[in-house]
């Protein structure tokens, strides 16, 4: 989660306090105010950081940080 927080801040640092306090149930758009551009930056950064590829999913498929974490963990197995 800590690595993901760093990625989120790099993607969009306008809401630093919310990102630093985020958890699995934090909603990317509703709670963090992420735009489609911020989501795209997040995906690119995650792909680079974890050396994975987002396949057959779009940014709209992830509502919460927990869903993003679950996807990353599944891809790393």
- DSSP helix fraction: 40-55%
Which homologous superfamily in CATH is the superfamily?
ACP-like
Distance between the termini: 17 Å
The arrangement of helices and strands along the chain is: HHHH
Number of helices: 4
Shape: globular
Total number of distinct structural domains? 1
Average pLDDT, all residues: 90
Largest sheet data: none
Question: What is the CATH domain class?
Answer: Mainly Alpha
Integer-rounded radius of gyration: 11 Å
Structural class: mainly alpha
Return the CATH architecture. Answer: Orthogonal Bundle
Low-confidence stretches: none
Proportion of residues in extended strands:
under 5%
CATH topology, by name, is Non-ribosomal Peptide Synthetase Peptidyl Carrier Protein, Chain A
| Strand element count | 0
Q: Can you describe this structure?
A:
This protein is mainly alpha-helical. The protein has one domain: Non-ribosomal Peptide Synthetase Peptidyl Carrier Protein, Chain A. It is built from four helices and no strands. Helix 1 packs across helix 3. The longest helix has 15 residues. It is globular, with a radius of gyration of 11 Å. The chain starts with a helix and ends with a helix. The model has no long low-confidence stretch (mean pLDDT 90).
């Amino acid at each position: 989660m800590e690595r993901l927080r760093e990625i989120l801040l790099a993607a969009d640092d306008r809401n630093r306090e919310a990102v630093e306090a985020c958890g699995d149930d934090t909603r990317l758009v509703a709670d963090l105010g992420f735009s489609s551009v911020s989501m795209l930056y997040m995906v690119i950064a995650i792909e680079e950081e974890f050396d994975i590829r987002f396949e057959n999913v779009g940014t709209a498929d992830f509502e919460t940080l927990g869903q993003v974490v679950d996807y990353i963990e599944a891809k790393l197995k």
